[in-house]
Design brief:
Layout lengths: L1 E3 L3 E3 L3 H9 L12 E8 L2 E6 L5 E9 L3 E6 L6 E11 L2 E10 L3 H25 L1
């Protein structure tokens, strides 16, 4: 299953956006209002939970400055990645897009597609205000 957010324009350089997303503690400011828990577990790992959903631990898996950050599931029963793609528009503007990829059975994919799509849209649209 592959889901993508809209491309979001940010009035910052790719380096500034990359540095912001590289700090896992900054993801707390991007989370939707229905977050029930957020906890930094290390320099490269954090845990979060949305109301009515199980806790999820994300860990930095790959970093390619200043254009890509990959967070992946750290443990748990399901394997997925959240990929942040950053492209330069000009000297002071970047474009950010979040992509969610995971391997789910058809029933699970059908159940989580809507909530996950909404979640990555919320994260992406929160980036310009949070930086």
């Amino acid at each position: 299953m592959n889901l993508e957010s809209k491309k979001i324009s940010v009035s910052k350089s790719p380096e500034e956006v990359f540095n912001f997303l590289s700090e896992v503690k900054n993801f707390e400011s991007l989370m939707p209002e229905n977050i029930s828990k957020f906890e930094v577990l290390g320099d490269d790992k954090f845990l979060f939970a949305l109301k009515g959903m199980p806790e999820i631990v994300l860990k930095k898996k790959e970093v390619i400055p200043p254009n890509k950050i990959v967070l992946g599931a750290a443990g748990g029963k399901i394997d997925f990645s959240l990929i942040g793609k950053i492209n330069q528009i000009d000297e002071t503007t970047s474009e950010v897009q979040l992509e969610f990829t995971g391997d789910f059975n058809p029933m699970m994919a059908m159940m989580i597609k809507g909530p996950i799509s909404k979640f990555i849209e919320t994260l992406a649209t929160s980036i310009p205000q949070a930086i």
